[in-house]
Design goal:
Helices cover 74% and strands 0% of the residues. Helix 1 packs antiparallel against helix 9. The protein has 301 residues and is mostly helical. It has helices spanning 3-32, 37-58, 70-93, 96-103, 106-118, 124-141, 151-172, 178-194, 206-232, 235-238, 244-257, 263-282, 284-288.
Length: 301
């Protein structure tokens, strides 16, 4: 793997995480401005699909989007949209860095889901990383104390659903190229998130529509950055840079809303990030020996 490719991949992944943190900050702004989560989720998916569709069609046309695995695409979209609802709701009710941190536990749910669904074996190193990661979550949630916020359990559910969505991608990766997976996720997630609009009685004004457009565009650019990063370098080599999301979120939360980090959040951050990086390093050897022809599409959530 040339060093220049790895450097470019790292920069693209950090840029993608920065854009996703900006997206989360815009979602928090709109939520605090009174816009319902249902509307934000729908416009995030609909506008994201609108921005992505011309790109997808220009690189292969409609023929490339034909699939024989529509059920798995629907499963991926339904779990992904459910995770999105949970995550966006959490963003509105807890400090931005805390919401992002708990979302970062999705990789710890992934091997457990793969073990149950695909029969994968989990190494001792990965079990240890999962254990350490969830100790970090306990530090952030602070169960049993007056500071415990039940909304954080919604964030944890979001991470678990993301794990299912990502395993479903792996399940169909043998026949489905990344652009097809991205398209069907966009199409199904837009349809699924349109349903809750029937009980929404608040609609966005002109200024809020501009913010929603910015969210859709930011998410699309982030998705392109992250997918390109995984084309340039394997997840085992570049995945550690995903954790810059915590830095971006903490900085934005402090700068915009004056959100301070509690010492338990800092301790939890250290445990989650350390466990994630340690586990990624453990898989680096296997990543080197495997040629990855279908990099995982970034979710952009």
């Amino acid at each position: 793997m040339p060093n220049d490719n790895l450097a470019r991949a790292a920069l693209l992944l950090m840029a993608g995480e920065l854009l996703l943190a900006l997206m989360a900050a815009m979602i928090k702004h709109l939520s605090l401005d009174g816009l319902p989560t249902e509307l934000i989720v729908f416009f995030r998916n609909a506008l994201g699909l609108a921005f992505l569709l011309p790109i997808l069609l220009s690189t292969g046309g409609l023929k490339q989007l034909k699939t024989q695995r529509i059920g798995l695409h629907f499963l991926r979209a339904s779990t992904g949209v459910s995770a999105m609802f949970c995550f966006f709701y959490t963003i509105a009710h807890v400090p931005l860095a805390d919401a992002i941190l708990v979302k970062m536990t999705a990789p710890f749910f992934l091997p457990i889901t793969a073990m149950i669904w695909l029969g994968d074996r989990i190494s001792l190193r990965t079990w240890a990383a999962i254990f350490i990661g969830f100790i970090g979550v306990a530090f952030i949630l602070r169960p049993g104390s007056s500071a415990f916020n039940p909304v954080m359990l919604v964030a944890l559910l979001s991470a678990a659903l993301m794990g299912i969505a990502k395993v479903s991608i792996r399940k169909m990766a043998d026949t489905e190229p990344p652009r097809r997976i991205v398209f069907w996720f966009g199409a199904f997630s837009t349809l699924l998130s349109a349903g809750p609009l029937f009980w929404v009685d608040v609609w966005p004004g002109l200024t809020q529509i501009k913010w929603l457009l910015a969210i859709g565009l930011t998410a699309t650019i982030a998705q392109i950055c992250m997918t390109t990063a995984y084309q340039l370098a394997s997840p085992g080599r570049v995945g550690i840079y995903n954790y810059t999301a915590v830095i971006w979120a903490a900085s934005l939360g402090w700068f915009v809303w004056g959100e301070a980090l509690h010492w338990t959040t800092l301790a939890g951050t250290a445990l989650i990030v350390s466990a994630g990086i340690w586990n990624l390093r453990g898989h680096l050897g296997s990543a080197k020996s495997t040629t990855q022809t279908n990099p995982p599409p970034a979710d952009g959530k």
